[in-house]
Every structure is written in structure tokens, then in C-alpha cells.
Amino acid sequence: MTTARHIVRPKIRGYICVSAHPEGCAENVREQIRYVQAQKPIRDAPRNVLIIGASTGYGLASRIALAFGAKASTLGVFFEKPGESDRPASAGWYNTAAFEQEAAKAGIKAWSINGDAFTHEVKAAALDIIRKRMGKVDLVIYSLAAPRRTDPADGQSYRSVLRPVGQSFSSKTLDTDKNAVGFATLPPATDDEIKATVKVMGGEDWELWMNALDAAGLLAEGCKSVAYSYLGPQVTWPVYKDGTIGQAKKDLERAAKRIDALLKFHRGQAFISVNKAVVTQASSAIPVVPLYIALLFKVMKARNLHEGCIEQAWRLFSTQMYNENFVDFDDERRARLDDRELSPEVQTEVFALWPKITTENLFSETDYASYQVEFLKLFGFGFPNIDYETPVTLDIPIPSIPPVATEAGQKG
Ligand code: NAI
Predict the structure, then answer these.
(1) What gap in Å lies between CA 200 and CA 371, rounded to an integer?
(2) Which of 44, 47, 167, 317 has its Cα between 20 and 30 A from that of 237?
(3) Ligand 1 pocket, residue 53 CB under 6 Å
């Protein structure tokens, strides 16, 4: 039987692309692997790593950095759509298929679970794989960016929102659909919306994961855990740091302290790493952020300070967490990988440009062109070495995930 092949083009809907190119996504993964292979291997690195939110953005980069930079065995948990014979998978699915393929070629062990990380079932499946295949974990990375969560304790569902708290917020913003600079006003969140966002993006689920691993005796001596956060510049504070998502991130910091206390029993540690703004599926959804990133890219590139997810993940592991280094904590016991982004020189230059940006000068005065390139790359588009006119197979399996049963029988 021959498999149907299709030409895949970007299909952008609002701030998301609803199609993904399997070979382009594979190239995106290989590009990150090449970056890591060009660095010196990480010493005293973890052997067994659980990454929750492992298929795109910071979680994928962390997985690649540790697998290819330290030969760590990884278990990746994520929530992605598999492809069908006539419909592309989501980008994270193709990323993971490519990651596993490259890992297998390099003799690096990898397992993946596609499912809702908030459920008891996915946690139980992960614990089972760790127990049977890995023994114990030395590092747990919590890198979820989820729009909704059902609390497994009572079955209640919550949806996160990106809203200011207390009062409405108006700001210059960029409509990435129309490439137009304008103003947006966001109404303040209700109490229920704040609570829901904390439920989804706060630290409760991270604690549930760590407590489950502890109860099952799967935390290795010296085990570390890190969750990612963002603070950003003042212009984004009403919608980020002081907004609903910021409340959730405060809760993540609360959870970090409790998990740190738990890991002390294993002579380990837990903390938050505040990372820099990068183009990911999650950040493209935040009002104000795409315009800020377009300016930030311009300024940081000109100063040779530009970093994406893989450079950030690499810096965290190689200069702070491992290689016999210590984490350089701030006053709130957070690692600050956003140090270059928030340096006074960079911020002064970004905000000198900020008021001058209009739709007309968007491309000449900011690096919005790079933003667009980076955005398309998230979905496997725009790689010069991929022939997008050649039809491709869409239902690519992830080797460590059993094929999905369909009405027509087993596929894959
Ligand atoms: P992303 O959208 O690229 O990745 C999110 C990951 O979570 C994917 O692997 C996705 O499959 C997984 N996921 C979502 N819902 C899930 C569920 N119910 N069950 C299992 N997996 C699920 O996001 P990004 O940007 O990499 O964000 C990761 C973390 O990094 C977030 O905490 C974010 O706040 C933080 N961060 C992001 C920054 C940015 O500029 N993008 C900056 C600093 C921190």
C-alpha cells in the first residue's frame, strides 16, 4: 500500500499556524542539535531527565541540550496532535518524531508520552516508564504552557487568560495577522479568571508531579528540578508580571520553595529559571510581546547578545546547573537567564525606539522580519534546505509511542 503524500503550506490563523511541515520541523530539531554538538559536552550532567512540556519551545530545547550535550536519557511528556494520512500533525509531534529518530541514531535513549500532563493517568504512565526503563530521575524540568487544565482532584476545568489585574490596560501592540501597529485595550480579569489562570499555569501541578515521583521512590540522590518563568520589561508588566499570568508565576515560585524543601531530603534542589523572551507558540499569544520581541531582537542582535531557546537552555545547564557550577541566584532565589535582555543598555535602546514604531516603519525600525522567520520555523516552514514543493507523508509515528488505534484499525 502506498502512503498518500501532500504538499504542506503554512496556514496562519490569528497568532497560530495550524499546519506544520514534518521535514521542516525535523530540520528545526537538527539545527538545535548541531548547535549543541558544536559546544563542549556537559560534565557532571544528569543521566535521567523527565521533561514536562518537551515538544516545543524551552522544553524541547532543554531536552535536546541534555540528550545531545550530555547523552542523558530523556522522558518527554507533551500534548500534541498526531497526523493523519491527509492532515498534518502539530509541530510538537513532528519535532518529537525527529528528536527520537536523531537520538536513536546517536545511541541516546528517549521515551515520549503524548497526553494531558495534568491527569493522574499520564503521571502514572510516566512513573511506570521511569521505574521500568530509567530507574530514577536526576532532573525534572517543568516547561508547560497550557491553555486549560482539569483538576484531577474534583474534575473541575479551568481556562487561563492573559489579562491585567485590577484595572484595564492599553498599550501599543502589533497585530501579527495584519502586520499593523495599533493600540489594544484589555479589560481587567475577574477574580475567577485570576484563580483559573493560577490553577492552569501556577505551581500546583508541578508539586503533584514531584510528590508522585517522591512517593514512588523515583527521585535520585541529588535530584534537581527547574520550572521556567518570565518577568520582562515594565511595558509588559500590566499584562505579564502583574497580570493573571504573573499571579500564576508567583504561585510557581511558591511551589519552587516547597519542592526545594522536598528535594533537600534527596540532597537536591528546586528553583525557577527566569528566561528571556523568545518566539514560541506560547509567547506569540501574549499581547504586546511580539512587538517587544521584534525590537529586542534588533537591539540584542546588534550587540551580539541574541539567544533563542537552545542557547538559553545550553547556558542554564552548562554555566549554572552543571559543569561543577553553582546557580547564580537572585535575591528571590531564581536563576536569571534574562540578564542580557534586561540589561540597562538593551532596555534603554529598546524603549528609545518603542514610541517611534508605526505600521509604516515596522520592518525598517524593528527586526519584525526575523520575528516572522522565527515564527514560521516553529512550524517547520522557511528552511532554505527543505523543498516545500515536494509532497510529504503526514502520519509520521513517534517510535516510543504505540500507534493510535482508529476505527479503520491500527495506523502508523
Ligand atoms: P511552548 O508553547 O513552546 O511549549 C509548551 C509545551 O507544553 C509543549 O511541549 C506542549 O505540548 C506542552 N503542553 C501544553 N499543554 C499540555 C498538557 N495539558 N499536557 C502536557 N503537555 C502540555 O511554550 P514555551 O514558550 O516554551 O513555554 C514553556 C515555559 O517557558 C512556560 O512556563 C513559559 O512561561 C516559560 N517562558 C517562556 C518564554 C517565552 O518567551 N516563550 C520566556 C520565559 C519563560
Answers:
(1) 27
(2) 317
(3) yes
